[in-house]
Amino acid sequence: MAKVRSDPEARIARYIREGRGLGEGRSYKPWIGIRDISSKGRSHAVPGFTTGREHQLLSDLELKVCLLADFSPRFVDIREQFPLFSRIETQSLAKRLGIKHPRYPRSSVDMVLTTDFLLTTAGPHKTIVARSVKYQSDLADERTLEKLELEKRYWQERGVQWQLITELDIPQDVWRNVYWLRRGVTESFNDDLERQFTYQLEGAKADETLRELFIRIERRLKITPGQASIIFRHLVWKHTIHVDIHAKLDLAATISSIGLKLPVEGESHASAA
User: What are phi and psi of 51, to 5 degrees?
Assistant: First the structure.
């Protein structure tokens, strides 16, 4: 459990002055950052492709959920550690549910509760969905379940869909693929190189492995060894080109096994996704 350091009310006041929990996209500031807490798990600060800012993640499981959301064309904004600003409301909900409102450790101060992720969906009618992230083992604790119920009810009363995600909800083959792709995401490639690379993919053979394909493209485009793999992963992440995310993606995979699809002329990245 993450623990906020000393003097809770003063810390809350400072967070509010700093604008934490406010903004969208690049301007959003999470309520809690990795430097604000001590945690039993591993924390991560990772750049977001969707938001253009660094995400503050408090566990390996949060990292997985964040990167999966970052890859998905379904979401256009990711706000982590989102505060439930109205303590009056969460206190009232706790009373109605017959549970004790969570307090900061070693204090009598009620917490400003947070939701792990508030996600904005794409499309003409953007909607907000809330996601809480917990390891399955944590759900054996009755107090954890009470806090989750409090959070769930908070969002339900606002008409916001809430869902709990555990490690069992994340397909491991999909996660491995997304992690491999994410390591190739960069903003450094120019449009001309991307077009040349995509053109070279048109000559790919069904039984050709990605390793064989990348070596051939690197020779033809006269780029450095290993760069073709990075460009490929970058283009898949952007949904410029498409693969079967459930297939095994590695250098030994064949073109036919990954279901490679190239963009149709005039098709936008968003519609292709």
Answer: -95, -25
Task: List all residues 6 or more positions away from 37 whose beta carbon is below 8 Å from its beta carbon.
Answer: 2, 3, 4, 5, 43, 58
The enclosing domain of 237 has a CATH number of 1.10.10.10
Dist CA 212 CA 216 (whole Å): 6
Strands (E), 21-168: 37-38, 44-47, 54-57, 75-83, 114-121, 128-133, 161-165
Amino acid found at 272: A
Rg (C-alpha) for the chain, rounded Å, is: 22
pLDDT tens per residue, range 47-93: 999 999 999 999 999 999 999 999 999 999 999 999 999 999 999 99
| Domain of residue 73, CATH code | 3.40.1350.10
For residues 241 and 140, state if they share a domain. Answer: no
User: If you search the block for the tokens 């959301």, which residue do you land on?
Assistant: 69
Residue 34, domain extent: 3-169
Q: What is the pTM of this model?
A: 0.89
Asked if 201 contacts 260 with a C-beta cutoff of 8 angstroms, the reply is yes
Alpha carbon distances (Å) from 225 to 215, 222, 249? 7, 9, 19
DSSP 8-state assignment for residue 136:
G
Q: Are strands 161-165 and 128-133 parallel, antiparallel or unpaired?
A: parallel
